[in-house]
């Protein structure tokens, strides 16, 4: 007589199922445009990535930028953006420079005014602005299928997750966003000395911080200011 197989779920399987469920619950992926999707992980990082990457071979080099004050500035002249439409390119050299890049273009940005919750207006405004920037890039002939955005939001007062430390790890000059890039399959066997990170927070007398310069140092990649890169 052939015995019946037990239908009981083993403890290990229960644990694996709970872990998989937790990961799924903490990761939200939404379509942003025809080319990109928005991914949030437990509110501590926002990624805006190309939808299709199947035919792309991982690169050994990349060119990375800060966003505000490096690629763009406010159209209104205010220090901080007043909405998704309140942006313009930093200067007339940015677009030609981006057009000449054949490597992955990566943006690492601290977004201290953004809370990455589903119903957050600040998150909606930020992703809308990124969509407009990507649309402008595409219109200018830049290969947006190779543009990757990583944003470090702030921890909301109502955050109830268990990853408080991750918010600090993601914020430049910490290298959490760079570590996510390395895990995301964009790069392989990176030749760091042939990459570059461009940012305006360089610790100069008129700068608000040196977080961009230290971020590059912590990632062990060369650093340039916008004035040095966009020539």
Automatic annotation (TrEMBL):
<protein>
    <submittedName>
        <fullName>Polynucleotide 3'-phosphatase</fullName>
    </submittedName>
</protein>
<dbReference type="GO" id="GO:0046404">
    <property type="term" value="F:ATP-dependent polydeoxyribonucleotide 5'-hydroxyl-kinase activity"/>
</dbReference>
<dbReference type="GO" id="GO:0006281">
    <property type="term" value="P:DNA repair"/>
</dbReference>
<dbReference type="GO" id="GO:0003690">
    <property type="term" value="F:double-stranded DNA binding"/>
</dbReference>
<dbReference type="GO" id="GO:0046403">
    <property type="term" value="F:polynucleotide 3'-phosphatase activity"/>
</dbReference>
<dbReference type="InterPro" id="IPR006551">
    <property type="entry name" value="Polynucleotide_phosphatase"/>
</dbReference>
<dbReference type="InterPro" id="IPR013954">
    <property type="entry name" value="PNK3P"/>
</dbReference>
<dbReference type="InterPro" id="IPR006549">
    <property type="entry name" value="HAD-SF_hydro_IIIA"/>
</dbReference>
<dbReference type="InterPro" id="IPR023214">
    <property type="entry name" value="HAD_sf"/>
</dbReference>
<dbReference type="InterPro" id="IPR036412">
    <property type="entry name" value="HAD-like_sf"/>
</dbReference>
<dbReference type="Pfam" id="PF08645">
    <property type="entry name" value="PNK3P"/>
</dbReference>
């Amino acid at each position: 007589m052939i015995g019946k197989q037990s239908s009981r779920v083993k403890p290990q399987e229960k644990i694996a199922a709970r872990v998989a469920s937790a990961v799924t619950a903490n990761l939200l992926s939404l379509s942003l445009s025809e080319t990109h999707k928005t991914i949030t992980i437990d509110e501590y990082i926002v990624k805006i990535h190309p939808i299709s990457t199947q035919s792309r071979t991982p690169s050994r080099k990349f060119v990375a930028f800060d966003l505000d004050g490096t690629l763009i500035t406010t159209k209104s002249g205010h220090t901080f953006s007043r909405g998704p439409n309140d942006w313009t390119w930093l200067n007339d050299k940015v677009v030609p420079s981006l057009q000449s890049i054949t490597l992955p273009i990566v943006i690492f940005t601290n977004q201290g005014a953004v809370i990455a919750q589903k119903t957050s207006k600040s998150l909606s405004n930020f992703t809308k602005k990124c969509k407009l920037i990507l649309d402008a890039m595409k219109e200018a002939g830049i290969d947006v299928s190779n543009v990757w955005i990583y944003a470090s939001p702030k921890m909301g007062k109502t955050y109830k997750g268990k990853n408080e430390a991750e918010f600090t790890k993601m914020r430049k000059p910490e290298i959490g966003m760079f570590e996510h890039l390395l895990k995301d399959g964009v790069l392989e066997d990176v030749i760091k000395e042939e990459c570059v990170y461009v940012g305006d927070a360089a610790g100069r007398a008129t700068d608000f911080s040196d977080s961009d310069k230290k971020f590059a140092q912590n990632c062990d990649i060369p650093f340039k200011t916008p004035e040095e890169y966009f020539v």
